[in-house]
Amino acid sequence: MLNTLKKTYEKKSLLAQTPRQKSLFDELDFTYESKPILRSALFYVGDKYKLMKELRVFFPKNIKRYFEAFVGGGSSFLNTKAKSYFLNDIDSHIISLHRFLQSKAGAKEEFFNKLFALIKEYNLTCSFLHFLPPQGLKEQYKKTYFARFNKEAYINLRADFNADKKDFFRLYLLLIYGFNHFLRFNVRGEFNLPVGNVDFNNNVFKALNEHLDFIKDKNISFFNEDYKSFLSRFSFERGDFIYFDPPYLISGSEYNKLWSEKHEQELYVLLKELDLQGVKWGLSNLLSHKGRKNELLLEFAKNYQSHKIKSNYISFNDNSIKKDSCELYITNFKET
Fold this sequence. Notes:
The chain is α/β, with parallel strands linked by helices. It has helices spanning 2-12, 18-22, 52-55, 75-78, 92-104, 108-122, 135-140, 145-163, 168-177, 202-216, 227-231, 261-276, 295-301; strands at 65-68, 84-88, 220-223, 240-244, 280-289, 292-293, 305-310, 326-331.
């Protein structure tokens, strides 16, 4: 099976790109504008993948240590050049998946073979390997045929993971095949997301392949703490940069529900303290959304460099991008 899959990868002309991908972030002749945007293989809700082309222009050009207090899926660090990376999130499941991928980056072919073997074992579709639903099902359910075909297999996969919550191969597949690529657990710690109308396609393989290539030889440390506890670990130095992408105060997504005005104000106090220490930072946040405005953010932004970013904020309820949404990127320095 290994040789067959290897031929499939090469036919797809994706693993053949590995040497080029390894040199994307070399020390010489680095310009953000000429480099492709990498997408996190975790497909996290709120991920900055579509905004990184705009955002990274405002990041420092020479970063020794890159810190991220709310790493989420990680598209931000995947598109940032630094000597070392310190990445934190309070969500233990997302950090477990990051560490899992990091542990597999040095044995990529074995990793893919295991994933595809599990997909075959559960009889899930896999567009990348041309394991597709019957044509009749596709014609009958044009918009939901993946979900209808995969539902029973997905339920079995979910049950097996909940019986062994340390099986991160299965958790990763639940993320890929689940509704909108969410991670959701009930009060008993059981994964409880329903199946989605998605599968392991070319885009998933490309993102996962490039994600593994990037993290393979990088000095990356992951942390699972409150962001203030995480940052209190370090004495910051010249060449450090901290990127903040906190939960958004004025949105209703699942991962924003525990973020209050008090949390927002505490974050601004911390940012002011870091500024007084001479530490460079950048902050992404949602200024307006669905008729609401973050007045705290508007007032805070007056004291720093502020840039409007075209928002890709997706509504949790209807999976649509809201045209009235406006994101700000705020920094306490001006890059020349």
